[in-house]
Amino acid sequence: MSAEGPSQGANYSPSGGSAAAELAIEAASVGAVQLFEYLQRLGDTDVVLAQRLGEWIGHGPVLEEDIALANVGLDLLGQGRMWLSYAGEVEARFRDKGRSEDQLAFLRDGGAYRNLLLAEMPNGDFAVTMARQFYFDQFHLLQLRALSRSSDPRIAEIAAKGVKEVTYHAERSMDWVIRLGDGTDESHERMQRALDALWMYTGEMFAADATELALAEAGIGVDPRTLREPWQAAVAAVIGEATLELPTSEWMQGSGNRGGKQGIHTEHLGHLLAEMQHLQRTHPGSQW
Amino acid sequence: MVIGAVAEGAPILPAACGRPDLDVVWAALATVPDPEIPVISIVELGIVRDVAWEGDRLIVKVTPTYSGCPATEMINTLIREALAVIGVTNAVLLNQLSPPWSTDWIAPEARTRLNGYGIAPPHVIGTRIDVTGISPLRRANVVVPCPRCASANTELLSQFGSTACKAQYRCLDCREPFDYFKPH
User: So what's the architecture of B3-101 in CATH?
Assistant: First the structure.
């Protein structure tokens, strides 16, 4: 991939543009601005989690798991590319020029990223990685199933493609939660600890802000609040089967619409982006 | 194309020469192997969805197997090369997502060849391991016979194999690991 574009590879700052550019945005359809925002949330979550999974390559507990983690990451990267390509096309509807998938991925700073906080959580041990994947996969599957019925045909087809892939992801992370939970004392304890530690990052997935509500209203997006109940039921069933306890804490990170979806991140994202972006930042526009 | 090489005064070839029939196009595409599984062609894999002439441009619609399939760009390059052989240099390759690719589109004869190549084809046997008394959350796996010794005594190692579209199994009789092309 390459990130040709802004000549010196400078970060594109939506708020730092000229007054004329600001006026152009105001005059454009608010729908396109919100859709652009929404597509970044979908794409950024995939890209950031794919990068995290990629960190496992060469470090997996066994070869098969090393390969599986990379393959799940690859699926997410493929989906992320499609969301961000579309985001760039939508951006062109209200700015002079939309950015490419590569420009969006490699040349935005952390504050411009719109991924879920859960996706940027460090890998930890294998139990933490699987807990993160389990919480996310169960959500992701529900989200993509709903989006495959979007009134926006482009969103519907990307989501329908993703559902087939994420079905495998969800089966696999569920398997591991059960296997580790109902395994040895050590694996049980570590799995429980991982589920507990990441629980406070799950609330953000189901919090709706004005952008999501507007898109849901238009039949384009999904109201994430409607996904909470089926998610909770599925997660509780698996955790019970795994002889683990469902965390009960109600306080959630990123609540009050001040989380990753709004560009407010943990300190972990900057480190992840530094590694992911440094090549394009150092050698702008370089290609394989 | 030959037209540029024709000497002055030689008869001009009819324009139709620059637009091979669609069955010629399909035959050319059938020579393109899947880069990861060279025993089957991209046509047999079912990823070439449509071919049509639009004026003097050939429109080729290709669908990815998986969203992140890293072979996509390689496949596009191979398609262009195969089309150039029959004189088509103005092809437009479109990425078509919908309907999403399914292993049901893999040609029957290609399934046999997959098996011979050491990859168990999708849906080889419909029977499942006896699940009586086992929670539905502890999934039963479909019996996948070993492509080498045909034993049904095999076990799943990982839901992902050498590529995203395959799972990894092991034969408990001949002890060989093998890939299973996952139904998708």
Answer: 2-Layer Sandwich (3.30)
